[in-house]
Amino acid sequence: MKKLFFSLTLIIVLTIGAIYGVLFTSPGNSFVASIIEDKVNEGQKDVNLKVNNFVLTMDKIVFKATIDDNSEINVFGALNIFAKSIDVNYNINIKDLSKLQNITKQKLNGSFSTKGIVRGDEAFAEVIGESLVASGKTDYDIKLEKFQAKKILFEMTNVRVDELLYMLNQPKYATGLLNIDANIKNADINNLDGMVNTSVSNGILNTLAIQPKANKKAYAPITFSSKTHTQLSSETASSQVDFDSTIASLNIKKADYNLKENSLVSDYKLFVKSLSKLEPLINQRLNGNFTASGDVKFQNNNLDLSGSTDIFKSNTTYKVTTKNNKPESVKLNMNDAQLAYVLNLVDQPKFATGLLNIDADIKNADLNNLDGKVITTVVNGLVNNSIVNKEFEQKLKDKINFDAVIDTSLEKTLASSIVDVNSTLANVDMKKAIYNLKDLVFTSDYLLTVADLSKLKDVTGQKMRGNLNLTGNIKQAKDELNVDGQTKLFGGDINFNLVNDNFTAKIDGVEVKDLTHMMYYPEIFTSKSNIDVNYNTTSKIGNIKGSLINGQFIQNEFSNIINTFAKFDITKEIYKTVDIDSKINKDIINTIVNMESQYTTIKVPSSTLNTKANTINALVKTKIKKYEFDTKVKGNLSNPKVSVDTSKFVKDKLKNKVKEKLEDKLKDSILKDLFNKAPTPQDQIKKPATDEEIARAFKEMFGQN
């Protein structure tokens, strides 16, 4: 037994001696220094740690090292291994933190320096020092019990925010000065006691760092400042926050954060001063201001946000929840939001006024699995005519009132709506308006009802009468707009299709007489139409081509003149087909017409219709049996002037004789005007000739009794 005891004692002594020889002797110190160098330099390409002096004995420590000859680490002082006590000074000066990534395990930038003392033993120790971080001074005093932080005094003064972000390898989102003052009497997370004050002054956001693709035009700088007071008690950090900027201010009276449970309960009051100043950050112009206040709860990655807001001058309440950091539910009740402020928010002119109401109950807000209901209404809507006229070159005069109800059901990735819009101009109904939030595609049917077409005059610029029902479908995708429609009108069908900016239409079997009557055009012809329309809405260029079937002139000024001149009733002629070819160039429509019956041939070699000025200038070349003559139609479409060149009713050699006979017999009769370019003002006030006088004059002209 004694032999065994001595053997163990010898082994222990030898082990201690070996350890001492390795650690506390000059050769041992050199060996340890080489291990430190190898460990730090392992895997490093851009850094080289060189231990210049390493001394570790039973009562002192000296460690001097350089990094790339420009950074220094210097530690020296007393060290008692057995008493576990220490009293050393340290001075660390790192010129380039990026070269220490292998040690810090995080990319850092810039420089860092700190110096101070570490003294005490296992029962109580303290670290007192100062450092230079981001051009700011930091003082710290940390009390340790059993090598655990107990009390902390920490003061950081005038640290530059942009340099601190750079040090942490973050973009320079802002500039400003950061100050932190912490007095923690007990740092035990289960029994916290102390306070922390932070502030940021002279803050300016770097908008180009936040939004690199922002419009490069000049903006007023976005400035900000903040103050936070945090009281530590037990395991809770309770904060008061005052944040102010040129965009918004945020006030939090009490935000309780449980460090152990990672949970938060807080109030908030947000005042958005000017949404327009967000433009350089979001690259989108918004306008207006609003306030919002409420409560926030966060626990186990679940968020519960509730509150009220006066956005759009409304009375609105809301509640939003998330689960595992994903949207869960949304409840929103918006009352009496002003439509003008909604338009202003998205930087649109005040096209209309009215009240907007939204009642949303979304049980599942996951965009891939939606479930909920949204009811949207607009009441007391009124179009702002002056603004619409200015923006869209319209000439609205009469008041346009409107109301709308949109009933939307959310299911998976679809928002399906029933839309009912009623106005003094027209009503629009959509039974299946569907928006696919995943594919960003909108499809819908529609029914457009115009009870009184005369009310559209201010919008279309065309005086009309009657009513109209139009049905069709709409599809709107990323690069596609497709609208079709159809209606039955005056015994025929009208079908159209708009694909992006290309418009096509087919008019089949519509009675021309009724159509011209509807549009207040002169009713001179009756027939069934077969017309094709092609038009580009962007270039405003297109053509109208087709034919009129089994057409007949109806009694009007033109037919009366023909009947009087040629003793021929043109209304009895039937035109099996009338070929029409029109070219559209913006507001101008140039038309060619060819028509032929048993005894007549009528051609329109040139006809110009100005839709903007609502005027016509047309030449009609007519052949009736042996007679040929030209008719000019000119002036306002609603009441054009019609003049006939009667010189072609007779052969050339009789022209002068007929003219002399007319002048002698008719003198100041109305027929004289037909041979002149235009009547004089005195002629215009004369009493017009009767039909009997005109007929008698032509009988005399042709030598008939």
Task: Explain what this protein looks like in three dimensions.
With 705 residues, the protein is α+β, with helices and mostly antiparallel strands. It has a 36-stranded antiparallel sheet. It contains 14 helices and 36 strands. Strand 6 (125-133) and strand 7 form a beta hairpin.
Query: What is the share of helical residues?
Result: 10-25%
Overall pLDDT metric: 85
Put simply, the count of helices is 14
Rounded to the nearest angstrom, the radius of gyration is 46 Å
Tell how many strands the DSSP assignment holds: 36
Overall 3D geometry?
elongated
Low-confidence stretches: 1-20, 652-659, 661-691, 693-705
Question: How much beta, percentage-wise?
Answer: over 45%
Amino-to-carboxy terminus distance: 170 Å
| Main sheet properties | 36 strands, antiparallel
Structural class based on helices, strands and sheet pairing: alpha+beta
Give me a quick take on this structure.
This protein is α+β, with helices and mostly antiparallel strands and 705 residues long.
